[in-house]
Amino acid sequence: MMEFGGLRSSFDCLLIDLDDTLYSSSLGIAQACKRNIEEFLAAKCGVSAEKACSLRVELFRSYGSSLAGLIALGYDVHPDEYHSFVHGLLPYERISPDPQLRELLLSIPQAKIMFTNSDRKHVKRVLEGLGIEEECFDRIVCFETLNPHLFDTKEESSTLPRPPATPEVILKPSITAVETAVRLAGFDPRRALFLDDSERNIAAGKAVGLRTALVGKRVKTKAADYSLESIMNLSQAIPEIWGEKEKKKGTLDDGLAVRSELDSVRSTTPIEA
Ligand SMILES: [Mg+2]
């Protein structure tokens, strides 16, 4: 049990997604990303713009991402080529410095692990846009961390078995991706809180035993322990992060605890909390 100034917290670690979690989906970065993916698919697979849209949706559904789908289907695509096209041309200028978010992140007493499917360059550009130092995070788990096998440049030796022709791309929402992040974070998943805007990712987190918070949505999902409309509502939605007073029966503290619980029910929507 982690203690902060006499207050106990239910969590030892926070796993935090980047895109549409640390900044609002209303900036349209994800929309721009989808358009770039479709252009990439159209060029790479030689399909029309209309077909590229349905192909992107199908690859996302079946393989978790377009890149994973392209590689699984045998297309010769290097992740760096894909990311430089799909992320390199994003309208990063829409992301403005967010000193309140920076303050919020710095106030979180637990270890903070960024857990994103995006590549390292994208992480860097988004954090720069938000005015947040990478050091705000204890560790960054991103595409390259999850997929070191795709960047192995060692010369192939004829005496060693050849690697599989279609290496697997490890990304959320696969269980392997979540388990890898948990292992790298080095904390008991039951005492780790996972924040993400994707219902699929939250469900995968729950399956691995994490406590889960769906960010940016009002909808309730079965796999989410909490839901919050914005990361900026974190302290109202999940005050337990900063510790909670031990409840003492028969004292004034009881009434205070109940009142604070009622306040949190009113201001937020904890689900199965
Ligand atoms: Mg996201």
TrEMBL record:
<dbReference type="InterPro" id="IPR036412">
    <property type="entry name" value="HAD-like_sf"/>
</dbReference>
<dbReference type="InterPro" id="IPR010237">
    <property type="entry name" value="Pyr-5-nucltdase"/>
</dbReference>
<dbReference type="InterPro" id="IPR006439">
    <property type="entry name" value="HAD-SF_hydro_IA"/>
</dbReference>
<dbReference type="InterPro" id="IPR023214">
    <property type="entry name" value="HAD_sf"/>
</dbReference>
<protein>
    <submittedName>
        <fullName>Uncharacterized protein LOC103715749</fullName>
    </submittedName>
</protein>
<dbReference type="Pfam" id="PF00702">
    <property type="entry name" value="Hydrolase"/>
</dbReference>
